[in-house]
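Mods, move this if it's the wrong board.
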Amino acid sequence: MALDSQKIQIHPTAVQAEIKDISLVDAIREGDQAAFEQLFFEYHPALIRFANSITRSKELSRDTVQDVFLKIWRNRDQWNIHSSLKVYLYQSVRNQALNLLEKQNNRYKLKENLHIDYSPSMNIWEEGFQKKLELPEEDAKRIMTIWMLVEKMPDRRRLVFELHRKDGLSYKEIAKVLDLSVKTVENHIGQAIRYLREQLGQEKNL
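Not the wrong board. Structure tokens:
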């Protein structure tokens, strides 16, 4: 099974997404609580997962995402974004996660947590993916193997690969979120795929 087909969501077209995001931002800026709740429920699960990939802490992940959304709501009348909404949210979560790690002097705990197995949120994602696409057991196990291998990649490469394959971010969006060049993102994806091919038997359709 090709990795390109292994996606949890079907993303809307770029134009549709941009129009929707502009409408959401405008409504929230005007104090529309329903629009804010829509934004929260649409992005919260993915942002929690992303925060956890940085902090390796469920508690810090929840605090990170909560702080980002609270800041948006409290400063809604002055809320302006200069990129796509998705990029803005991921950038905000990344910055807040790093700030919390630094403030709480969490480096030692982070180092310890790097040795833990797959996070529960990852397992839940895989189970939901299998159920939604009604995958055969063999394919589901293969996907799980792939993501377990991804967990063993260097942190930056893992983050790049997850943002592209799980969250559907483009190379350009990932570059903005992680403050990298597009070429660096391309290199990370290429290295990740080569690593997976080596581990899974040199399959060319990854």
